[in-house]
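Fig. S4 source data, part A: sequence.
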Amino acid sequence: MKHLLIILLFLFFGCAQPLVFVRKQYNSSYQPNYTTSYNSANIKMEVLEAKNDDNINKIIFENIKELSNFIDSQNLTITNYNQLTKGFVDVYKNAKNSKPENNLKNWNFEL
């Protein structure tokens, strides 16, 4: 993350036009029984995206994706935030469906 900050600062001060960032939210959930602490998955991410620089957005995305260790274990191809949130829920569903007789603790991820 330290490298990301350095790159962002370099790009910010090295650009001719000012960077404009917007906050975007990405959410996904699986809640068949939301009233308990079992059998549901929820992911909520709020990220900054540059309106005028896709390179910065790629760097931010790749750093966030590195935090998502569930991707490697499932060989998922993730190229955007919607796929990332959906992948989180899908991995939970697969784990839950592999042993439907067991309760699986809720998975919650918030960024």
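Fig. S4 source data, part B ends here. Strands lie at 21-30, 41-50, 107-110.
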